[in-house]
Specification:
By secondary structure, the protein is of the alpha+beta class. It contains nine helices and eight strands. It is globular. 32% of the residues are buried. 44% of the residues lie in helices and 19% in strands. The longest helix is centred in the C-terminal third of the chain and has 18 residues. The strands form two sheets. It has a six-stranded antiparallel β-sheet with strand order 5-4-3-8-7-6, sandwiched between helices. A two-stranded antiparallel ribbon has the order 1-2. The chain has two domains: 53 residues, Arc Repressor Mutant, subunit A; 168 residues, Beta-Lactamase.
Length: 252
């Protein structure tokens, strides 16, 4: 059996400690976040810094992800067949509905954005490539979560859930019922559950095996995406998801 390399595991933990909320951190903050002694954390950070994976600000001394990570990430995105196939259809959908269209994939217990077409309006959803979000309270997340195996769904729903807005559903029974409806209707709705004043309608994208590998969504402010418009937008996003799915080899 191959043994895991502890030093590499620690380096990965340090890189994963950075997020949108913690984009820049001091040595003390990093060591506390990854539960490592300062001296150990510093040695790993120094190596990552020498490789360009971490940068250090000269004015504050704080650390942040390096450009080398962006270069590697960009290389991966360029090679993603899904992203290349989906983009033209996403652009077409965004033009038709006038709202932001977002492509997300499953990563762990979260959905991560790998492509986004911005709305033409000044007031629009703040979605950027690389953004992570929970599965249980977002349209793109629920459109993926609903089509996982019962065992995978159960594992995700066993975990504690944060209430982001007054509309966030955290009760397991209610979520299970909502996921059943997503499977029945073929689309999911985020009714201001993750962000105040933002609605989202999403549908799953399937591959040649019939597996939901991504989801595409329309999102925007609730003053434009009203409850009355959801059926129309759902039809549009489902059609786009079906076209992309067929391009990936899906037969249904």
């Amino acid at each position: 059996m191959v043994k895991r390399v502890k030093s590499i595991e620690r380096a990965i933990k340090i890189l994963e400690a950075f997020s949108e909320e913690n984009f820049e951190m001091s040595l003390s903050e990093i060591s506390k976040k990854v539960n490592l002694p300062k001296a150990t954390a510093y040695r790993i950070i120094y190596t990552l810094k020498e490789s360009g994976l971490i940068e250090q600000r000269t004015d504050t001394g704080k650390y942040r992800p390096g450009l080398r990570l962006f270069e590697l990430g960009s290389l991966v995105f360029k090679k993603l067949k899904l992203r290349e196939i989906a983009l033209p259809y996403m652009e077409n959908l965004s033009k038709k509905c006038g709202e932001t269209v977002h492509l997300g994939i499953l990563q762990g217990d979260e959905v991560i954005s790998i492509e986004s077409c911005d709305s033409s309006f000044d007031l629009r959803s703040n979605i950027y490539i690389g953004k992570r979000a929970p599965l249980y309270c977002t349209g793109v997340g629920k459109a993926l979560l609903a089509f996982l195996t019962p065992e995978e769904i159960s594992r995700v729903l066993k975990k504690r859930r944060k209430k982001y807005t007054d509309n966030t559903v955290v009760e397991r029974e209610r979520l299970e019922e909502e996921l059943r409806k997503v499977r029945e209707k073929g689309f999911a709705v985020d009714n201001m559950e993750h962000e105040e004043g933002v609605r989202c309608v999403a549908a799953p994208i399937r591959n040649y095996e019939g597996k939901a590998v991504a989801s595409v969504s329309i999102s925007g402010p609730s003053i434009r995406i009203t409850e009355e418009k959801i059926p129309q937008l759902a039809s549009m996003v489902k059609k786009t998801a079906e076209i992309i799915s067929k391009k990936l080899g899906a037969t249904r």
